[in-house]
């Protein structure tokens, strides 16, 4: 990622609460995405929280993307938005049973048309 003006973080970025085994081992990020998050994540987090002020056009655009995610263009911006969604969004829960609770209005009594009369 030498073609970017984005600053490297002062320290490597990790999220031990949501991704305790690392970003790539979570199964949600590729190895390349993990590398980008660990190198630039500290700067992106600082820009998002307002601890850092943007120093170039790329960082200014990143701050705009935080407010309006539809404007994401660069790989850095898309990966950070993916991280935000996975770390702070609702966790999806999949059950093995696809049926929801039965309706109380359904009648499970014998159907009179199926009962043979002698």
From TrEMBL:
Q: Where do the segments described as Disordered lie?
A: 95-118
Q: Where are the transmembrane segments?
A: none
Q: Which Pfam families match?
A: DUF413
Acidic residues compositional bias, start-end: 105-118
Which InterPro entries does the record associate with it? DUF413
Family, similarity comment = Belongs to the MaoP family.
- The molecule here is called Macrodomain Ori protein
